[in-house]
Each structure stands twice: as structure tokens, then as C-alpha cells.
């Protein structure tokens, strides 16, 4: 199971890595694009987990 902390740590790691790769290889390089796609998935997952967490607190 994913925890909010784990997701946020991975998001922060990927943000840094994407910046490094993009500055080195360019924003349209396949590695930059793959990192960006993974980052998008994690950001969506974070929103889902966060919303579920809020919902669980209300119950």
C-alpha cells in the first residue's frame, strides 16, 4: 500500500531527476518524457490517496 509520505518522497525524487535529465538531454528526450509520465501518475495517485484519507477521517 502506498502512503502519502512514500508518494511525496518519490514525487520529490522524480522532480529533481527530471530537472537534471531535462537540463542535460533536453525536455523532449525520451528519458525526460518517461520521468514526466511517471511523475504525472504519482501526482494523480497522491490526489486519490489524499482524498481517500480525508474521506476516511470523516467516517
Automatic annotation (TrEMBL):
<dbReference type="Pfam" id="PF09388">
    <property type="entry name" value="SpoOE-like"/>
</dbReference>
<dbReference type="InterPro" id="IPR036638">
    <property type="entry name" value="HLH_DNA-bd_sf"/>
</dbReference>
<dbReference type="InterPro" id="IPR037208">
    <property type="entry name" value="Spo0E-like_sf"/>
</dbReference>
<dbReference type="InterPro" id="IPR018540">
    <property type="entry name" value="Spo0E-like"/>
</dbReference>
<protein>
    <submittedName>
        <fullName>Spo0E family sporulation regulatory protein-aspartic acid phosphatase</fullName>
    </submittedName>
</protein>
Amino acid at each position: 500500500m502506498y502512503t502519502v509520505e512514500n508518494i511525496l518522497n518519490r514525487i520529490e525524487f522524480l522532480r529533481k531527476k527530471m530537472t537534471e535529465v531535462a537540463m542535460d538531454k533536453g525536455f523532449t528526450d525520451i528519458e525526460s518524457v518517461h520521468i514526466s509520465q511517471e511523475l504525472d501518475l504519482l501526482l494523480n495517485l497522491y490526489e486519490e490517496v489524499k482524498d481517500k484519507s480525508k474521506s476516511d477521517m470523516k467516517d
